[in-house]
Amino acid sequence: MIDEGIDTGDIISKKVLNIDLASYNSFRASIYPEIAIFVAEVLEKITKDPSIISNSTRQNEDIAKYREYIGENKILQLDKSLKAANGRGTSNR
Q: What pLDDT score was predicted for residue 1?
């Protein structure tokens, strides 16, 4: 759920996403459709059973982690590392 904070709403569902780690760009390209499918699945479940919302799990803010933008240089390093790990050489970005 979304509330007034940054990613502080209750957790109504979790799922392991099927993402492509071949490169940073393929990761980004694969995660958004996966998230969209997951959100649609959750909305369908809520439509069928609204009690899912009242049975959600409150996030523990004491262990929450928030990430700032990592910057272009770190993205290029990640892309290079992912490609190397997948045998695809270096980034041409």
A: 60
